[in-house]
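Hey all, quick one. A colleague (J.T.) asked me to put the adenosine-5'-triphosphate job into the tracker so the inputs and the structure tokens live in one place instead of scattered across chat threads. No bug as far as I know, just bookkeeping. Sequence used:
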Amino acid sequence: MTPQQVVLRLGELTLKGRNRHRFEQAVLQQLKRVLRPWGAIKYEKEFGRITLHLNGTPYEAVREPLKTVFGIVSFSPVLTTELELERVQETALLAMRAMDTQPRTFKVSVRRVNKSFPHDSQEMNRLVGGYVLRAMPDLKVDVHRPEAELKVELRERQALVYSQVDRGAGGFPLGTNGKAVLMLSGGIDSPVAGYLAMRQGLAVEAVHFHSYPYTSERSQEKVKELVRKLAVYAGPIKLHMVPFTSVQTKIHETYRENLLITVLRRAMMRIAEKLAEVNGAGAIVTGESLGQVASQTLASMNAIGRAVHLPLIRPLVCMEKLEIIRLAEAIDSYEVSILPYEDCCTLFLPPSPSTNPNLKVVESIEEGMPWLQEEMDEAVRNTETLWIDTDRRAEQEDRFSSFF
Ligand code: ATP
Ligand code: MG
């Protein structure tokens, strides 16, 4: 017997107050995107949850895609059966036997929505539990801390039975907390920062600075590949490719001492902020992590962050490198990130970058660069924007279809 439905549980915060409808809509939209290949599936919204009617689609096919939808805390494959005691008992046993790992203890929780069903929920707990115990004598009942909970819902027309609980992606539905630009390098950290920002309900547009031809086309390809990994959780994502060579070269002609990185990073921040403004984004997300490198001390983050007014979101700021790597592996970006690439910022690296930049000094250096604003504006004007999707073919189709 294969599951006919999937029950998806939405996060508690998703359910509160006036936002509920908007949150549910955002989850539905993402669900329809990830389940698009399975056209037979029907969607039903109920209070606090969404039910998928599989209509023949195997549960195993939808299980992994469902784990990429933010706002879903957990989900369960559901067996449906007629409203008859014997049917419910048999189905309950099937659901217990179908679990991935067999529990040692369990309890039955029956909810009787249909009051015309002849046995009340207390009686049903015993009738169903007893039946399962007779068939699986190694199992024990534990009503306080069971390893598995067998749920039965007696609805108007049918009974639902489920016991397996798969963990969802959690977080807030995508975009329900607004939009941010993600400063995306080719490294390990920023894709993870992007994932965490999206999980917290931020839609993202990626911004990448390159110094072509000093940095290769291959490193641009690598960044696109990283955006493809993020697109698994979001659908098509905008990628802004900022040509940084000219800004960088001009800055380097004027100043090449130990505050160079700070000055470059501040220019990147300002450009990112401009792109955020133009694209209606309300924050800048970076992959900075406290103490990792010279530019990520408190003093550096302060000097760099003061270049802009938008909130800076640094999801990794207090995470250890190992935790970050584990997340990078989980979202499948790690393998791409460790491919060799040249970062624009490693181009004209000073011999000893300052770990304690003084904001006043940095600002006075920038005052000696009256052309800086115009250079940054020029970089914004020359920024190329692409739509990136999970696979290249979809990207091309997108571009093609936009002609019609
Ligand atoms: P990552 O692993 O994300 O490259 P990192 O530990 O190497 O981070 P830095 O190189 O100091 O740290 O960069 C800090 C942050 O600045 C990055 O996480 C990213 O958000 C941003 N950044 C750095 N280089 C670029 C770039 N070329 N384009 C866009 N953003 C960048
Ligand atoms: Mg880096």
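Adding what we noticed when we looked at it: The chain has two domains: 5-167, 179-399. Residues 185, 187, 343 surround magnesium ion (ligand 2) (CB under 6 Å).
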